[in-house]
């Protein structure tokens, strides 16, 4: 039988979050949000523990985690790159910007660079359509981009990392 | 009954209000094709997500086509089931399904029994116009079940079976969109999950996505081995359903089955019903022992006694309610009792080593395959039951051996392990085990002969039933559940200490073993299960001996070999123990805490 | 208490925040403080002004001076020059593209003139995190009025106003309320659908960010009318600012007794909770939304039953979207007659559109129903960017369609859009110019729906995938004329057979572009060419040696090092290395790089 091994502190954190939501299976999505906020991702053992706390089969938790694109089972990069692929960004060339990020980082959408620095995702409309095409790195927004700007953005964070 | 009038394909129909269009159409002989829809009326199983869209029909006044399975009849509704628009849509949807489905029908385990195949045939699909990405998933195999999700069409029947009917909760939709699939958590193998191998997912799967792990080749190998004596035992529910595979539905085919097994080359054709009688002797004695202790004031005694014949149920308790394990009867299941007796008593009668005796069983069940493989049912690495076949696999073997089943003579089982009473026969139907137990326990406890052998109050198809039997002034409360969803309710009461029963019978499958995961596919036809039950009760009624303790060969077995029921040797051979198989988070946490 | 004579409003919407509006607010406040004017001049961070193209926006009232593209370092100049000296900062004023002159008063801007703001009435005027500013603009007066009315009368008023759901379908709002009210149940729910998932639509977010109390108030009104005491807002987790402002608004409303027990002493109790979406477009569909709120996979279920009868946790649930709710308080306060006087015969009131794409003035606008596309795109939107030619406008997001030149003078309302092969949807309006390939646009939307399909029903799960694959073949130059035929049939069947609105409308972008731009499809298939030079496999960049000056800029900016040459001589592109990003063409100062 599978054993769930995690540091006791983490177990307590997760249990506390479940408790705050009344251990109510109806609150599963809010609980997953809270846990992912804390841990950055939702690995297997975390899902098993949540299932146990809520008294539901782990298959239900897994089914929900894999349904919603917001939830992830793998840790994101230190600098998560999100390229907006909303329609406004698309018609203003968001796709080319995304292609260039893929090329420069050598990863596909959903991937993380081997050094763990960057992960790449596309997202749908951050609502900054006036700045299209838009890219977010972490919380920082870059607007009105062209493929030629991509390298500069990456370099900025690489430099930040070297300095740090 | 409130009714509504509507028109289907130009014909007027009056049906019960709220009935869906599939059933309303069926009532006038219009068979709207379905794929995801399935309803075992009265047995607690229903699936109708309205997902496959095969059953679409035109309903006047609606912009889009309506799924007949999810559309309730309303007054004045005008429905057309085969207009060009409907037929084109249905064929296109079918082609779409086929465009993401392997085309290896000829070598598929479901070949000949596949609902998708039949539908493609009846829709006359000659080509699939669409090609493109095809989803592919790793194959998975447990001792009981094979999963090939490349063949899954997302009908969700298995999900309903696993979650709503059985509350086991292993199979669930995972992922999204084109890559959504019915999966186990984290894609792990079934045997590493909470799966109890009940096989109800297999029983309802319309395609080859879920099938039994076949052991036909193993049987062929031992039958061809001159150094082995091969005996076969057949479970009670098998005889009630095997005929369906050969156009003999609705009847017990015990005699023909015995003849077929002989022609397959088994050296001895025995009956699990014999072991069922033996089970009653052991389990009945155990029940009376616990009852007596209880009535004598021992409050530590574990009551209610829960039956342990069904391996899906036993596994369910181990994986979900280990705290209730002590309530399970320690008696092995009839399959395992048979194996234990065959490999000891019968092998010594033959004067051969137990390893040279091969025990094959034919079961209505896929969980029995896993049960036979449990290490506690082996002796020095030699399992008591070597190979388990399902009813379906037996039918296939019979065909492979060129046997014309319908023209076979009726033959009898071999002696001594082929003799059984009517009590053993009804083991295959919900309520049957406990009825058999009551027949014996009553006479043993009261010392009086039963006036009335048929305990009809224990029969029926309600998911949970209860009855009180008067044991000479002592009222014995009996609870019966079939399907694990219902069993969960009873075992929760047991754990909570609020169970009103002295004895509980559980069978994991709808209707009992007759609805097992290894039986011929019922295709949602609940009347088929009812006929199987009737066949078993009929065979019981026709028997001269109908109480297990009257079985002369069982008596002989105790006299010659075992001694007393629940005695020392009986305990060693016929009883078992259970394991806590619940996921062990708590322990793990404590161990981390202790370490750090 | 301070008496402010001047207010400096700064846009605090997501777009402007991304361009440092929080720093601008801080700098303005600092400058005001430094000037010793903090008792006379109030600096307010508001919700979205709508004119996102020119953000960040700073507006000074009462003289309505409209500063655009403001930077934090401009703050001190604005305060010094405008507030203290009374001289407008010319260089920051909006310049009318028509006259080429500064427009000092926002009321004279072409962008605002044709607009009529009902749903957006407070966006850009009040501090969304201050309930008193909302109350000062008649906030919660509608709730107070309603609580003195009979629920039936309120519903009658909403019905008379002709308000229809702004989330897509256009179902009459009052009727929905009536149905929910008339279902007998102990417990009912009000749900605000804020799962705005259309790529390119952000009106709901702007309302929640700019005027969250209007939603709180309207939900309470809805609760009173339908008999619900619990409200839930289902909001995208991708909208952290909207979530925050809503949380603040709910807390303030509780504090002021607008939520909670016994509101305004009337005995009516109502409270609101927030539920988060998690990135699934399909959850905008109301049954999927409800499943998601219940902690399950957001898969739609077949309707009926409708949520009004059986919704959240099985209780009757009234689901309306954000913009619909935002219209409620003005209708209550100004009357159904006033509202019904705006708009067209069957579409009353105004509609908010997120105007984006190749248009000069990207932003959020609100116009009366019946305004033409021409007015929206050319008057408010300021025409096409870079003087290009208008080609199409996409409305209704992934469920909608592309409209062309010939539709420009069609008055926008639910029915006209539907008749033109598109739909209102939530109000995304994306303008496309001659450089956009309509096959690619259809493919873009389909990629979206394929990615967002829940995977439950066959036509959407497999059908849309196949549809996309055909489009991929066509844009890659491998399409055949049969593909065009199959696109049409498949699209029609998917529309006709899908389970929910997402699937039923998914083929719309394909069908409408085929209808309006058939020649473009044919060019891709027959001539293997993309008339807009957008499809990579069907186009190539080239350098015209007659124009090229050999400056080497293209070679330096090329991310693929595909351009080489000798300084002062014409450069050339290595077609095998070119990744067709177009950077070279964008950067060439001489227009020497073309595409063919």
Number of discrete domains of chain C? 5
From the 3D coordinates, which CATH architecture of the largest domain in chain C would you assign? 3-Layer(aba) Sandwich
Q: Number of domains in the coordinates of chain A?
A: 2
User: Based on the structure, what is the oligomeric state of the protein chains?
Assistant: heterotrimer
The radius of gyration computed from the alpha-carbon positions of chain A, rounded to a whole number of angstroms, is: 18 Å
Strand order of the largest sheet of chain A: 2-1-3-4
Proportion of residues in helical segments of chain C: 25-40%
**The CATH class of the largest domain in chain C:** Alpha Beta
Describe the structure.
The complex is a heterotrimer of chains A (164), B (596) and C (596). Chain A has 164 residues and is α+β, with helices and mostly antiparallel strands. Chain A is built from seven helices and four strands, in the order ααααβααβββα. Chain A has two domains: 8-67; 79-162, Glutaredoxin. In chain A, strands 2-1-3-4 form a four-stranded mixed β-sheet, covered by helices on one side. The mean pLDDT of chain A is 89. In chain B, strands 2-1-7-5-6 form a five-stranded mixed β-sheet. In chain B, helix 9 (272-295) packs across helix 11 (334-350) and helix 9 crosses helix 15 (432-446). Chain B is globular and about 75 Å long. Chain C folds into five domains: 6-108, Glutaredoxin; 131-337, NADH-ubiquinone oxidoreductase 51kDa subunit (Rossmann fold, 3-Layer(aba) Sandwich), CATH 3.40.50; 350-433, Ubiquitin-like (UB roll); 438-527, NADH-ubiquinone oxidoreductase 51kDa subunit, iron-sulphur binding domain (de novo design (two linked rop proteins)); 540-595, Alpha-Beta Plaits (2-Layer Sandwich), CATH 3.30.70.20. Chain C has 23 helices and 19 strands. In chain C, helix 8 (203-210) packs across helix 9 (212-226), helix 8 crosses helix 10 (240-255) and helix 16 packs antiparallel against helix 17. The model of chain C has no long low-confidence stretch (mean pLDDT 93). Chains in contact: A-B, A-C, B-C.
